[in-house]
Amino acid sequence: MKIGLFFGSFNPIHVGHLIIANHMVEYSDLDEVWMVVTPHNPFKKKNSLLDDHHRLQLVMRATEDYPKLKPSNIEFGLAQPNYTINTLVHLEEKYSEHDFNLIMGLDNLKSFKKWKNYERIIDEHELYVYPRISKVISDSDLLIHKNVHIIEAPVVEISSTFIRRAIKEKKNIRALMPDSAWRYLDEMNFYK
Q1: Residue 149 burial by CB count (10 A; 0-12/13-18/19+): exposed, middle or buried?
Q2: Which residues make beta-bridge pairs with 34?
Q3: Contact 40/81 with Cβ under 8 angstroms?
Q4: Tens digits of per-residue pLDDT, 78-134?
Q5: CATH class of the 2-187 domain in this structure
Q6: What is the pTM assigned to this prediction?
Q7: Non-local CB neighbours of 52 within 8 Å, separated by 6+ positions
Q8: What crossing angle do the helices spanning 52-63 and 15-26 adopt, rounded to 10°?
Q9: Are the beta carbons of 68 and 32 closer than 8 angstroms?
Q10: Of 69, 79, 74, 76, which Cα lies nearest the Cα of 49?
Q11: Where are the alpha helices (DSSP H) in the chain?
Q12: What value does the CA radius of gyration of the chain take, rounded to a whole number of Å?
């Protein structure tokens, strides 16, 4: 099975994440998309994150009506901070029957050469890249790499940062989140 790995802190997950993930699984050769909840992104401060299990619960609730989207806590048991190459090696050992590939925004492709062992990642795995409005990359050799696929997915400019700030400001952001995830977030009084 060909799996697309969509990494994120999902702090919180929102409809933009689901639009991208669902588009990737429906309009590419991926069989499933695993929504990998990242305990600690090396480029983000850990203290700004909800507890791992709460973010996983949000992803589980958000994806319950999408049979090709699977929440994943695969990184929870790995040493932190973790790097994508370590997760890929772990997944290949645990699920050798699957072919794992990465889903990322064009903005991440721009900084991809800063990733640990990026050459190995791009040589051994395919990258499924979705467009972003604000981040343009036109002269990268990565764009023409045989393992990079630019997918014409909808451009969604919703951020988890915006949602957290709006909640703190007592704004109604219910339309920006899957209903079951929003209800959990509201019941738990997160980000208030």
Answers
A1: middle
A2: 5, 70
A3: yes
A4: 988 789 999 999 999 999 999 999 999 988 888 899 999 999 999 999 999 998 775
A5: alpha beta
A6: 0.92
A7: 37, 39, 73, 76
A8: 60
A9: yes
A10: 76
A11: 15-26, 52-63, 84-94, 106-110, 118-124, 160-168, 179-187
A12: 16
Chain center to CA of 33: 10
The count of other CB atoms within 10 Å of the CB of residue 115 is 18
Cα of first residue to Cα of last residue in the chain, in angstroms, is 41
Structure tokens at 42: 């090396």
Structure tokens belonging to residue 159: 């951020």
What's the whole-number mean pLDDT along residues 7-22? Answer: 96
Give Dmax (Cα) for the chain.
47
Residue indicated by tokens 């009084």:
189
Strands 32-37 and 69-72: parallel
Give CA–CA dist 163/23, Å, rounded.
22
Inter-helix orientation angle 52-63/179-187, to 10°: 150
Q: Classify residue 191 as exposed, middle or buried by CB count within 10 Å of its CB (0-12, 13-18, 19+).
A: middle
Say what percent of the chain tops pLDDT 90: 74
Q: Give CA angle at 149 (145, 152), nearest 5°.
A: 140
Cα torsion angle, 39, 94, 35, 154, sign:
positive
d(CA 170, CA 168): 5
